[in-house]
Predict the structure.
Amino acid sequence: MAVERTLSIIKPDATARNITGKINTFFEDAGLKIVAQRRVRLTREQAEGFYAVHKERAFFDELCEYMCSGPAVVQVLEGESAIAKNREIMGATNPANADEGTIRKALGQNVQENSVHGSDSPENAAIEISYFFSTCEVVG
Ligand code: ADP
Ligand code: MG
């Protein structure tokens, strides 16, 4: 087990419902520490760059449109096995398939508006953290 960092995004459907604090409580209750956090309004270009791995997917345009539709909160979470642990706390992509007790089960609205993003591998966590934060902005 190693201490890791992962990139999390609280998505526009969640900021619209004023539940960013409620979502942060899931992370903190599970032992993840929020070591960087910033509220942003993504530009279309930033959203397309962030989700570039999905650019061939049918939902890419709609996803980028949604991610720019309102404020988001970008954050770095730190803890033991933070990458896998955050994916567990988030639950399945589609809230309808997510386990009880997960963020997406409790708060997600549908497969697109599913309240949170979390990095899926150490490689992507490093890329995604550096997409939004410089080294000195992450304070563990
Ligand atoms: P995850 O966020 O669980 O890692 P993916 O990386 O597969 O899921 O997809 C990225 C995001 O794209 C999802 O969180 C969701 O907002 C959106 N998305 C995924 N699948 C669909 C779909 N079938 N229709 C619309 N949006 C989707
Ligand atoms: Mg993903």
User: Anything to note?
Assistant: The first helix runs from residue 12 to 16.
